[in-house]
Amino acid sequence: MKQQHRHQDNLSWYKRLDYWLVSILFLAGFLNIWNLWNAGTADAFYTAAIKSGTLSWKAFFFGSIDPANYITVDKPPVALWIPELLGRIFGVNALTVTLPSALFGVATCYLIYLMIKPRWGAWAARISALVMTIVPMAVADNRVDNMDATLVFLCVFAYYFMLKAGKKQEIRYVFIAMATIGVAYNVKMMEAWMVVPGMFLYYFIAIKLPWKKLLVNFFAALAILGVTSLTYSVVVDAIPQSQRPWVGSTSDDSEISLSFGYNGVERLLGMSSGSGSSSSAPSGSSSTKPSGMPSGSLTSNTTSMSKSSTAPTSSGSMTGLSGSLLTQASKKLTSSELTSLESLTSTQKTQLTSLLSKAGITTSQLASALESNQSSQFNQGGPSGSGGNSAGGGLFNNGGVGLFRLFNAELGPTSSWFLPTALFGLFIGFFATRKRKSKWYELTDKQKETLLWAGWLIPVGGFFSVAGFFHSYYLDMMGAPIAALTGIAIVELVRSAKASKAKLNWANIVGALLVLATYGVQASFTYSTYKIPTLVVGVLAIAIALAWLIPSKHGLKARAAASIAVLSIFTFWWALTPTLSSESAETPTVGPSLYQSGGQGASGGMGSNLDTNVLKYTEAHQGSATYLFATVSAGTSEPYIIQSGKAVMTLGGFSGSDPSITLAKFKTLVKEGKVKYFLAGGGMGAGGGSSSQISAIESWIEANAKKVTSVSSTSALSTSSKTTSASSTAQQEQRHQK
Questions:
Q1: CA 329 – CA 322 distance, rounded (Å)
Q2: CB 718 within 8 A of CB 706
Q3: DSSP assigned state of 299
């Protein structure tokens, strides 16, 4: 009897399995995981920190770029901890670095399903999970270790607990939700707080308690949010600066200012000045970090390997060589050489070092000229000179500020394919589920859940519509509410059309409008690339819209299914491009150009983007020095840290602009033998130039260090008192603020 009962239980489990969901999760797994084993360094900035965290528990705690704990990354380290633990067990490789993000992406799709199903039904949940799976930028972010997939998962998980609190009427789930957002805050700081308005709105309309208890518990929840969010920052700031690394991307070495400055207000208003908020990030520059770049030049006293570095303007050309510098260059260069110098792009040319040397222009002169030029460009709002970050699209060409920014050619194709459907879903979910003759404040459970998702979509969408400093890949934060509201919209249209006594009712009309509006937005993304396919899909969309207007209650589910299928065609293709191109890049992108051109692809092997001769030389001559060498920005240090596991002193942090050390202190480190070599260049980064402290160090090295002259092809500088020789090819790299 017991065996028969167990057999029946097994059959019952088998029958309960949702095979549509299983298929969707398999699709999510394929999109997120396929070919990740070739991801290379993924986001090398964070991969370097992961490598360091596997070598030092102190680096693990602080999120240091290097195992000697000189400077940290520009975010708290929570999202790095899982890959670091995996790295300690299985070694730092492409999978241990990227797989956690990929699995978080799959888990997010499953959570969306679990959240929608109880109130809206299985089909709404399946549609929502499917849409979440094929948000193109979500796929791209899920394939890299840049923390965004972790952030989205935690925010969705917090919403899951809020819904559970409303369903069970248990306040403890509200507290768990707030604590989860606190953890999310320690992934990407204030970005996590953007979803909190929806949570508190839902709290007040869904939790049934007397007003006094409601307010007391509200303040308790607020306290939990504050404590879980800020404890790490307060602890770090309380540790004496001499006993911890410099907080990267700050001018004052403070986690609190990192949160409310660089990762807070500056994201909204745009960057103005200071470290980590350098005044001159290149407007309109490429969002891609080039791979396979040659490296720079080596010198010794700290032996400096000098790597010439320029920053492109918005047009992609090197500027700043005007006036006396241009005259000086023209006297010593041929016309073709001068043309080459003036036309250098952000991909950087290996000629740069030799050309500058021949022209008699020092790197400090060039940096000064470029910094001045780019600062002017930034203050004018980019090439358009239209002021601020608005018309010029801010730092990263995100388009002009306004209501329709999320539908433009730069941002729209990342995440907005179903945004029109979601906007319809806001109204459908709220008004179609209202009880007749009820008072305006008497809300149904479905209305409350609709407002919860509105409380995510509207604040986040509003922020990205006006913000001056963000990457387009941040828009994966839009995916969850768009997915949820899309499922709600489609299923509620079918339900309302069936429930209406009229054969042709408002739901039929809205269904037709929804399909046409969503297709219209999608066509604006695809027409320039796929003219004929866009027209073909347009014919199908029009046919489905007309089908919605058929005055019959038969075939409503088929119309809904056809709507989702047709509207998913191009969305799915865009989502597929990161997978087909094997992309796992520092700046995730999506679209057919990525696939057709081979895309950014993976960032190369774990030892890519470094000069092996420089690495061999510095390892052989490091001796008792703490650091393999010093350099200005993380773009130079990352590959050496990842490949060797040795500490590289990254003076200016990510962008090369952090004022982490004074010249006097640097001289002391050189005198004590802790720093023997310096790899110059790479300090222009997104910051457009080093801080005054770092510039002073560069100038001192250039004036006093001895070049190492025989490792590969170009000159190098050294801080040692004894002339040695080494070389490397000139590497230049334009990088963005994260």
A1: 9
A2: yes
A3: E
Using DSSP's 3-state secondary structure scheme, residue 300 falls into strand
Q: Does residue 736 form part of some domain?
A: yes
For 197, the token pair is 């308005």
From residue 166, give the alpha-carbon distance in Å to each of 173, 174, 206, 295.
Answer: 9, 9, 5, 57
Could you list the residue range(s) of the whole structural domain that residue 190 is in? 2-219
Helix (H) / strand (E) containing 706: strand 706-707
Candidates 582, 576, 504, 587; CA nearest to 546 is 504
Tell me if 591 is assigned to some domain.
yes
Gyration radius of the chain over CA positions: 28
Residue from 586, 656, 516 nearest 47 by CA: 586
| Residue whose C-alpha is closest to residue 232's, from 62, 53, 45, 67 | 62
Q: 184, 219, 254 — which closes off a domain? A: 219
Count Cβ neighbours within 10 Å for each residue of 325-335 and write b for 16 or more, e otherwise.
bbeebeeebee
**How confident is the model over 670-700, as pLDDT tens digits?**
999 999 999 975 544 434 456 788 989 988 9
CA atoms of 367 and 372, how far apart (whole Å): 8
Tell me the per-residue pLDDT of 385-422, one tens digit each, with 9 for 90 and over.
333 333 344 456 788 889 899 999 999 999 999 999 99
The least confident of 177-181, 479-483, 526-530, 582-586 is: 582-586
DSSP conformational letter for 303:
E
Q: What are the backbone angles phi and psi of residue 326, rounded to the nearest 5°?
A: -65, -40
